Amino acid sequence: MKNYAIKENHLYRKIYASGKKAYGKYTVVYVLKDKKASRLKKENPRKRYINRIGLTVTKKLGKAVRRNRIKRIIRAALAETEKTLCLKKGFLIVIAAREAAWEATSAQIFEELCRQFKKLDMEEREKSVPMPEKAAENEK
Question: Are 4 and 51 in contact (CB under 8 A)?
């Protein structure tokens, strides 16, 4: 699924100030409920809620080539996380890279993002499906 970027600086400031945070060795994840989610749902062609994603890699981590490499690794790990976990929709999510992210692989960042999203309670609970044995008993 296509990621929608957070482009406004005021949203980043709001997320940093009042969002929930989860710290890891490679990244810090900030999550905040999107107040404009219903408007974006109407504009979305599929009429579904979406998450808006922001990546932050500061100049402290190196020159442009190094920062872009870190962003590519984080984007790859995020795409894999979205395939694996069913994330809740309608949120603003900011992922800030830390210095150790330069030496990390996308698999390591993927594992960390999964832990952080679970810690932030972003994993959507699936509706409980009855077991096949119990469903057969209910039909009798």
Answer: yes
Token pair in block for residue 107? 């698999």
**Segments making up each domain of the chain, as ranges:** 4-139
The pTM (predicted TM-score) of the whole model is 0.83
| pLDDT tens column, 17-40 | 999 999 999 999 999 999 888 777
How open is the CA angle 22-53-32, to the nearest 5 degrees? 50
DSSP state of 25: S
Contact yes or no for 27/116 (Cβ under 8 A): yes
The CATH fold of domain 4-139 = Ribosomal Protein S5; domain 2 (3.30.230)
What is the rounded distance in angstroms from the CA atom of residue 32 to the CA atom of residue 13? 11
CA–CA distances in Å: residue 131 to residues 37, 40, 96, 100? 35, 37, 41, 44
